[in-house]
Amino acid sequence: MSSPITTDAWLAFEDGWLAPYAMPSRASRGRKHPETDHPFRSLYQRDRERVVHCTAFRRMTGKTQVLVASVNDHHRTRLTHTLEVTQLARTVARRLRLNEDLAEAIALAHDIGHPPFGHAGEDALDECLKPHGGFDHNLFGLRRVDELEERYPQFPGLNLSFEVREAFVQHCGRTDAAECAEFRDSGGPLLEAQIADVVDSIAYDTHDTDDALGLGFITMDELCRVEFWTRAAERVHAHTPGLSDGPLRVAVVRELLAWQVTDLLEETANRIASANVRSVEDVRNANTPLVGFTPNVRCLKAGLERFLHQRVYKHHRVLRMTANGKRILQTLFAEYVRSPALLPEKHLRRWTGADAIIGPPPPGWVTAARTRLDGLERVVGDYLAGMTDRFAQLEYRRLFLPSIEL
Ligand code: MG
Is pLDDT larger for residue 300 or for residue 1? Predict the structure, then answer.
């Protein structure tokens, strides 16, 4: 067979390839704004590509995962973390014959709603927006892809499929929020969404350890107190004796990744079999997570996470970075709310409506006419949440230290 593939041919391939509990593209609940099918890309393949081409995706390159960019240039950013999560999600989805395109789209989008400065940034915006419903990066991710991205004249946002959109809400602890209402009757998360969620923890547990070692926040001697690390090191010494220092570090990190992925695959396959899951409906109705680790690896991961919390996330340099980021966002928030004229025009339109702005609106792209009008605080929160770390720092300097040459 050498003819170019069509969407119909791809859907037929999915029928033959996917496990009965995988989500087939043809069974999707579709998009909010109806669109014609693409000649050679499935719904989820288009979702994946829409995420990669959107502005918020590119901005993840300048957003903190745990460590801000100024500290060094080889540790993870939000974007490289996302690529690691996506790679893991694809590997696991393919091995279990799940819908790899859907798992990939969910993984690529999973952190798109994170504000600058990591969790400190989220805390800062949550405090600023407390009287207006607070801030949650999952709900903001949904808002980003549903409303704030501007790529099509016909509709706001990226118009992603129901299954990719619902994954934002399933991650969110605020299921009583109004945005969650349309997803309430759809049942539990699909296996593809559960995978993206669980491999996120494989990626960050492993790469935070690696980054912290690389930056000298912790040493390999200290990690000898962590059972997961020492047991992974024993496995490395068994198959590749004689390693030490840097080569040992990368080998143990690789071993930790491989161990978690293998354990996840085996345990998930066992759970699917023992719960007798035979359809997407069975997945939706399952009342416990089907994707997960064995109790042994869960316990080892918990030990590593305790260590990371004590020794890395509370390291004085991390605390200083996050305190700084928090202060920058809170100060900017107060300043924009006090002087809304400082906001860029398109954000201002979402608060005032197009008519209140002097000057002709861009034809076909008037944000206020495309999305609902929001309160000023919410508009300011959206603007700040979209920024990269660096842009927030520059904006802070521009407003408060104008004499500094940039
Ligand atoms: Mg993540």
Answer: 300
Res 368: pLDDT: 44
Interval between CA 174 and ligand 1 midpoint (Å):
18
From ligand 1's centre to the CA of 111, what distance in Å?
5
- Kindly state whether residues 277 and 145 are assigned to the same domain: no
pLDDT tens for each residue of 50-96: 999 999 999 999 888 776 555 566 678 899 999 999 999 999 999 99
Domain carrying residue 163: 7-87+97-183
CATH number of the structural domain spanning residue 145: 1.10.3210.10
Q: Are residues 157 and 29 in the same domain?
A: yes
Place of tokens 């007798």: 276
- The number of beta carbons lying within 10 Å of the beta carbon of residue 179 is 20
Query: Are residues 21 and 151 part of one domain?
Result: yes
User: Mean of the pLDDT values across residues 139-144?
Assistant: 95
The pTM assigned to this predicted structure is 0.94
Give phi and psi for 69, each to the nearest 5.
-60, -30
Q: How far is the CA of 351 from the centre of ligand 1 (A)?
A: 31
Number of independent structural domains in the chain? 2
| 243-272 pLDDT, tens digit each | 999 999 999 999 999 999 999 999 999 999
Residues 167 and 201 in one domain: no
Note whether residue 370 is domain-resident: no
DSSP assignment of 97-152: T--HHHHHHHHHHTTTT--TTHHHHHHHHHHHTGGGT---HHHHHHHIIIII----
In the reported structure, the alpha carbon of residue 231 is separated from the centroid of ligand 1 by a whole-number distance in angstroms of: 26
Q: Is residue 281 part of a domain?
A: yes
